Structures are given as structure tokens and as C-alpha cells.
């Protein structure tokens, strides 16, 4: 059927895309998490214990069956029951074992395994199944998002706000781990992302986190400010401009932002510009001059000085040695 002149003149209706940089929390996670990885499932029988050193990563442990005692420096020990997830968001040294009396052995990352077969540890007592993994964090002063988050976060289906979502994600992970299918690794990694976000949300919902960027999620005006800075990081923002955008006085806005986030608006913006620049240096081949302009710097020297102040090295050196900014402590694992 031949189109009429009217049909030919019609313009397509644009469908707006969601701006991935408009959500401050998603933006921080995208820039701060270099990679995530899952270990082969653990099958532990009492007595057993694992001692994990401090790392620049956020670790998590999902108990499939049985129970596991998670001891994190600076937090009260928690016995994870079946279906619960323990997060160690700051990479703090911690111990995972069947009881407080069991000896714990130091562990580290082993080689990649193609089989996905469970790793068996411990003796001949009560059995515990664990799905474990980590999110590797970018180097520097650490993601501001995690500041104020407690050293141990526990996710449970009994959570009044997110319980159903936690239960669904956990059941999906356990089913996918028990019966791997094509692209199971991708499915598991995405589900681990969901658990990470649920863990961050839970710290706000139950009052565990009262300070830091994640705490600002509960304050509509401060969170709107964060979203503005993330979506338009190169804009020449001032405290006055930001305060007007969210309908607050300059002094009231500055005080509220600093109280919740832990640093002033412009200090947060300066830190975030460098975090975004580090992401671009790591993931693109754009010129340093181009990246400087994209994050709000008019000159390369000023950008380089700011970058070195926050990251401890210049942008060119940072790009030349990308793997120096990740935590890749490996070891040879032997069966016993």
C-alpha cells in the first residue's frame, strides 16, 4: 500500500530514555565497582573456619543451608541462618566459621575454575552451604556512597520493607547455583548487584546509616541535589545555585547537605568529578584534555593537580597502570 503525503510527512514520536547518570546511587556504583566475581559454591562441614584479610572490596556470603557465624572487626558477630546474606561493605578483615570455638584458616583468591564444582572444606560434622562473592572497589579514598554504612549488613527475608524482594533474589540465586544453565554467571552477577542495592537500601530503612551519601537517599532535597550534580557533573555549580534548585536557603541547604553526606556540596562535587574522571580514564581511550572538560575543568593542569590530590597519582600514570588500582591478591589453593 502506497503511503500518502501526510504519512510521509509525519515525524516519529521520541520516547525518552532514562538517564543512567540521573540516579546518584546507580552512578556511584557504576563508577566505584570495577568488577564483581563469584566463588565456586562452598560446602563446609563442622568444624570449619575461613579468615579473610582486609581487602579493597565489598564481600558477601549467602547461606544456602545450615548456618555460619560471621565475625567482622568493629561489629557484633552474627550467625547467618539459611537464606540470610551477610555483607562486608568496607573490605574489613573478617572470619566466617561454624562456631566461635572453631579454628579459622587464612584464605585468598584461587585460580578461575571452569567446572563450578563446590569447594569442600572442614571436617565431618554439620553441613553448611555458602554462595560467596565480592565487588571490587576502585582505589583512592573509597566510594563516598559507602561512608557511614556499618561494617556488617545482614539481609533477611524478615526485613519489613524489602523482605519479599530479598527472598525472591535469594531463591533465584540458590536455584541458579544449584542447576547452572547457559549464561548462569551473568544471571548470578546481576542478582548479586540486586542484593548489593538491597543491602544499601536496608541501611537507610532501618536507621543503621545516618550519615554518608547513601543516607541522603531518605532526604528528597539532598538526594535531588546529588542527582543534579551527577547528571550534570561539568556544570559550574555553586552552593547558591544548588540551594535555589531545591527550594532551600543557602545556609540551610549547606548545613543539611553537610550533616547528611559528611562533606560540603562543593567538596562532594570535586570528589565526584575525579571519580568520574577515573572511570573515563579506566574505561575509555579519550584524551585527558577531553575528560577534563567532561568533568568540569577548563584546563588540563588544574585537572591534573586535582586528580593527583584525590587519587595520589596523575591521570596519565593512572591510565598507564590500570591494574594497579585493583585488589588482585591471589594464591595457590590445594585440596585437603
TrEMBL record:
Keywords: DNA-binding, Transcription, Transcription regulation. Residues 223-321 form the HTH araC/xylS-type domain. Pfam families: Cupin_6 (PF12852), HTH_18 (PF12833). InterPro entries: AraC_lig (IPR032783), AraC_XylS_family_regulators (IPR050204), Homeodomain-like_sf (IPR009057), HTH_AraC (IPR018060), RmlC-like_jellyroll (IPR014710), RmlC_Cupin_sf (IPR011051). Gene3D superfamilies: Homeodomain-like, Jelly Rolls. The keyword DNA-binding applies. GO terms for molecular function: DNA-binding transcription factor activity; sequence-specific DNA binding. The keyword Zinc does not apply. SMART domains: HTH_ARAC. This is AraC family transcriptional regulator. It comes from Corallococcus llansteffanensis.
Amino acid at each position: 500500500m502506497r503511503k500518502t503525503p501526510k504519512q510521509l510527512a509525519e515525524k516519529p514520536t521520541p520516547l525518552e530514555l532514562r538517564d543512567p547518570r540521573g540516579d546518584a546511587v546507580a552512578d556511584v556504583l557504576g563508577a566505584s565497582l570495577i568488577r564483581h566475581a563469584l566463588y565456586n559454591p562452598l560446602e563446609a562441614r563442622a568444624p570449619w573456619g575461613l579468615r579473610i584479610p582486609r581487602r579493597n572490596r565489598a564481600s558477601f556470603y549467602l547461606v544456602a543451608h545450615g548456618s555460619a557465624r560471621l565475625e567482622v572487626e568493629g561489629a557484633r558477630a552474627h550467625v547467618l541462618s539459611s537464606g540470610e546474606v551477610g555483607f562486608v561493605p568496607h573490605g574489613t578483615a573478617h572470619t566466617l566459621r561454624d562456631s566461635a570455638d572453631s579454628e579459622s584458616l587464612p584464605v585468598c583468591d584461587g585460580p578461575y575454575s571452569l567446572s563450578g564444582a563446590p569447594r569442600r572444606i572442614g571436617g565431618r560434622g554439620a553441613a553448611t552451604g555458602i554462595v560467596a562473592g565480592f565487588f571490587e572497589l576502585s582505589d583512592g579514598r573509597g566510594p563516598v556512597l559507602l561512608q557511614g554504612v556499618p561494617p556488617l549488613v545482614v539481609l533477611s527475608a524478615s526485613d519489613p520493607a524489602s523482605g519479599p524482594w530479598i527472598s525472591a533474589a535469594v531463591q533465584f540465586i540458590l536455584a541458579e547455583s544449584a542447576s547452572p544453565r547457559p549464561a548462569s554467571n551473568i544471571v548470578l552477577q546481576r542478582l548479586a548487584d540486586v542484593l548489593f542495592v538491597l543491602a544499601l537500601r536496608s541501611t537507610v530503612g532501618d536507621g543503621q546509616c545516618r550519615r554518608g551519601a547513601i543516607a541522603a537517599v531518605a532526604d528528597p532535597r539532598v538526594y535531588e541535589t546529588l542527582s543534579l550534580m551527577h547528571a550534570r557533573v561539568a556544570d559550574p555549580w555553586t552552593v547558591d545555585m544548588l540551594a535555589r534548585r531545591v527550594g532551600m536557603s543557602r545556609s540551610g541547604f549547606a548545613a543539611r547537605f553537610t550533616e547528611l553526606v559528611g562533606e560540603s556540596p562543593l567538596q562532594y562535587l570535586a570528589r565526584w568529578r575525579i571519580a568520574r574522571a577515573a572511570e573515563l580514564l579506566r574505561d575509555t581511550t579519550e584524551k585527558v584534555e577531553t575528560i577534563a572538560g567532561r568533568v568540569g575543568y577548563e584546563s588540563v593542569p588544574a585537572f591534573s593537580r586535582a586528580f593527583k590530590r584525590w587519587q595520589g597519582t596523575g591521570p596519565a600514570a593512572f591510565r598507564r597502570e590500570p591494574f594497579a588500582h585493583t585488589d588482585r591478591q591471589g594464591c595457590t589453593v590445594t585440596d585437603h
